[in-house]
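Thread: quick sanity check before group meeting

JM: Hey all, I'm pulling together slides for Thursday and realized we never actually wrote out the predicted structure for the chain we discussed last week. Dropping the sequence here so it's in one place. If anyone has concerns about the input, flag it before I start.
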Amino acid sequence: MRSLALAAVTLVLLAGCGDDERGAGPPPGRSVATSRDITKAHLFGDPVHARVDVVVDPRRLDPDRVRLRVDFLPYRIIDGGIRRSRREFSRFTRLRYDLTLRCLTIQCVPSRLQSVLGGQEGRGERRTFTFKPARVVYDDPKTGRARHLRRVWWPPVDNISGLSATGTLATQTSGSFVSSSPGAEFETTLAPALEPSYRLPPAFLGSVLLAAAAALLVLPGTLIAREVRRRRPEPEGELELPPLERALRVVEWASEHGDAEERREALEALAFELDAKDEVARAQEVRTLAWSPEEPSAQRITEQIEAVRKPDAAAA
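JM (edit): ok, ran it. Output follows.
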């Protein structure tokens, strides 16, 4: 199995070495032609090389506005992303997009296979992926939108396991295990990891950060407590005022903060309470002030309040 896998990888790599530097122009009546190449089989964790050639007729399309969209999930593009090169030949322009892919997640590990006898299961030999087609798009200067030009379909890619039925394909050298797969970049050691070192003791640094966080909460906490105390309702015993006193306080508030309509309504309410106490003359004066043609001034309202609270002093 190991020999077959390496042979398949070698054949694919040799097949991808050919490169036509001239390229083929678009067929008659078309402005774009595409070709692609990709590593069709590889060992788990090895890089996968993909290439897309887009040949454009510059008389009909601006090569600088041609872009390539790809999706190789669960593989990820490495080595700086998509590498783009440009070459002029004959009457055409060839745009080459080179990509290097790799997948190291559990999604790329060959699936488990169940034993025929229902016994212990094991890893499969390979997993085949079929990627979404790449899309060649063109940023149309007239509409400002990306216009679809061509789809580039990828052949299936086989991800071959590096494990056999007898164990791992690795050799032990100088206390470490190094993969014997061509091009593999994984290495581990049996030596224990060194203890980490710190510039500051973690416990001390954590205490300092915790104290700093608590200090930052002092000011907001003080402001919140002050606002809560300000909005806290007064005890019910303090709110039980006589009706006349409540009416006087409403008139005082309207005199300081209210408009003309609120002042008139507050004075009318005060006159009503004075009528209830058989102070008809005083009630008539307050009512006259409330509905006088002119807006009740703060000074005249204050005089009426003092007259209600100290009738003897006002009469004198």
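AS: nice. The chain has two domains: 2-17+24-114+121-171, 241-307. Residues 260-276 form the longest helix (17 residues).
JM: adding both to the slides.
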